[in-house]
Amino acid sequence: MDSSTPASGISEGAARRRTGGRSARVRAEVLDAVGALLLEAGYDGLTVDAVAERAGVHRTTVYRRWRDVGGLLVDVLDAAADDTWTPPDTGSLEGDLAALNQEVYEALASGTGLTTALIAASFRSAEAAEALGRFWEDRYARCAVVVSRAAARGEIPAPADSRALLVAATAPVYHELLLLRTAPDPALPGRAAAATAAAARAGAFS
Amino acid sequence: MDSSTPASGISEGAARRRTGGRSARVRAEVLDAVGALLLEAGYDGLTVDAVAERAGVHRTTVYRRWRDVGGLLVDVLDAAADDTWTPPDTGSLEGDLAALNQEVYEALASGTGLTTALIAASFRSAEAAEALGRFWEDRYARCAVVVSRAAARGEIPAPADSRALLVAATAPVYHELLLLRTAPDPALPGRAAAATAAAARAGAFS
Amino acid sequence: MDSSTPASGISEGAARRRTGGRSARVRAEVLDAVGALLLEAGYDGLTVDAVAERAGVHRTTVYRRWRDVGGLLVDVLDAAADDTWTPPDTGSLEGDLAALNQEVYEALASGTGLTTALIAASFRSAEAAEALGRFWEDRYARCAVVVSRAAARGEIPAPADSRALLVAATAPVYHELLLLRTAPDPALPGRAAAATAAAARAGAFS
Amino acid sequence: MDSSTPASGISEGAARRRTGGRSARVRAEVLDAVGALLLEAGYDGLTVDAVAERAGVHRTTVYRRWRDVGGLLVDVLDAAADDTWTPPDTGSLEGDLAALNQEVYEALASGTGLTTALIAASFRSAEAAEALGRFWEDRYARCAVVVSRAAARGEIPAPADSRALLVAATAPVYHELLLLRTAPDPALPGRAAAATAAAARAGAFS
DNA sequence: CTTTAAGCGAGACGGTACGTCCGGTCTTATT
DNA sequence: AATAAGACCGGACGTACCGTCTCGCTTAAAG
What we know:
The structure is a homotetramer.
Chain A: H1 5-17, H2 22-41, H3 48-55, H4 59-66, H5 69-80, H6 93-109, H7 114-122, H8 126-152, H9 162-180, H10 188-201
Helix pairs in contact in A: 1-2, 1-5, 2-3, 2-5, 3-4, 5-8, 6-9, 6-10, 7-8, 8-9, 9-10
Chain B binds a DNA duplex through residues 20-23, 26, 47-50, 57-61, 63-65, 67-69.
């Protein structure tokens, strides 16, 4: 959900791998370059040449280790998934969902963020699509606790399908901002959260 | 919502415009070629060269009239919007939503359809993104009647925000199939429709 | 025989073809660049990139029209064959052969000339080898008159195998300078001519 | 003259040097690989990578010991010169020359032999060119006896320039097959031998 | 009907990026 | 401490598209 996490994940992973050794350093610099280029120029600006130049590394090195842009994205996404993000805990289901949606909203609202670029990339590279899927599955798994807490509090009937509930809450935000590309509406995250919470209370996901 | 409509829209429009003149014929053949190529090779296979060759037209002709691939997509999408599609009318809100979702589901489930290709294209070309947005807005506007009928039947409290309701119903299908890329689940359209209908009955969109 | 002729042939042809039109100009500049690079850097310096840069033309243009280095050489050689060279006429067979050999000697003695480079190239590119073969066949054909004049003068018994005679006369010069790479000996052309003339008078080629 | 001798020389030398010691074994395997690759793929197929792989040795080992492809060729040629070849002795000058030419002819006629590859290599690597020159000088020195025998028999006037005579005899064969690349003519070796013998009898090399 | 200008066919060009191969150097890990 | 394995840099290759340009030729529509 937190789409800004990948970015920090990249830097973090990079920092951690910079343990000496040329190979590790090269990898870190290349992945940093990928993140930076995606932010600045989007997926179309993410050419192997540009990555190599920015990373201060030779083109052939990138091809040797990552094969193509898809391989770079996979490495970036897998590194990004390797963080400590946890879902918010506001004390109520609607509050948690609204906070989640707010994170998504902020990551997508500009239309030029890293997340948008990664999603665009996932439509071009099957490997990147898979890696992005893995990233999201991991996030949804971490968020299951939001639903179980709500059930424990008696807000919603147990047992509930946490994944369906979370998708119902977040999907409209992705849909409006990524696909419909309507002008960002700050009320959107809360509205989607409220509707989903209402459905959940009515037992729609149990 | 009917994502297969663009395809038929293309052929239909093409047929209608084939009124004699060379220009009209060229346009029809080019747009047909675009659709066919999108289906066969996806957005990445949609090169100006390939379109021109397939349409039996010279490259420069395509550049002259459409400028680039984005222009081709705009033309295709605008032609696709020019049809007579109307939303289903099953007698109940949940039934209507489920039928809508089913159309979306079928258009997206394969992952290789024209719709998927157009959406992928919308991440690469700003013009195509806009045209796709217009197409979807048109569809949502036509679907408003589904919500007003439900209100008239007393299924849901009036007045209801038809757009928010429709987005809530369809977004999960797009989200699962396009972004999360989970394995297609035939129960998905109905489940999303049911949850949204429940929320609507609970007044979540009023 | 005159191995310096290719060089002049190139410039000449270039000048003649520079009759307007971008294509003709491009061709002329590229062929000039090939000749210059062969002289300066030998065959190993004759890369498509270097040719393109020197000709002030884009790499892809060279690939489009000449395909590869072999194609460039073929064009150069065919252009070079398109001249008005005629064999010397000194009044005696031995004098003619010595003059021919002197031309060969001068073209090869430095070891860095255009001719040497073209021959080196012919070992790398089958097309270039063929073109060079054509060039030399043309030269031998033009030289046949040297032999027929000698027969007409009664120097040698008629009929004589002009090609075998000419090869016998010139081959030692090529052999010493190109293959054995012995230090250039100014007496070599005359010696080979004298020996061959002696054999011819003895009826060795009749 | 015997251009097939290098090949046998390689194998022979290799076998002889396989006397234990990893270094010696490595050298033998690498030189074998060079010969095999030259035969199969010509000079252009003789890459350090291919040699190393075929010899079962690491790339860096080749670079350490031979520096580059030229160094490999020098080693091969010097090993090849280290044999016991002696010129034919048929009882007549013309017979000896014809036999010599026949050996040359057979080594060159296919156009794909090891000899051709080594000659091609000599146009690319100065070191290889030198080594090949040394190889040929050694061969011509061994052949001097052919001329002295002829003089002793009174076939030709003494003293004769054996080197010039031998070059005159063999050069046409090299010239036709390597440079002119005419279709191989089985009569060529004998014809060149006969013409040279005639010239020699006429005192052209004395 | 004619004419006339917009549109098309044809082909070359400059340019960016691709992905590969190879030469040669340098670093890391091993022993 | 020496060396084998492996990664790197650098240059060239040949290809695919992109988008532009210039020339003729057709042909649809205006006079």
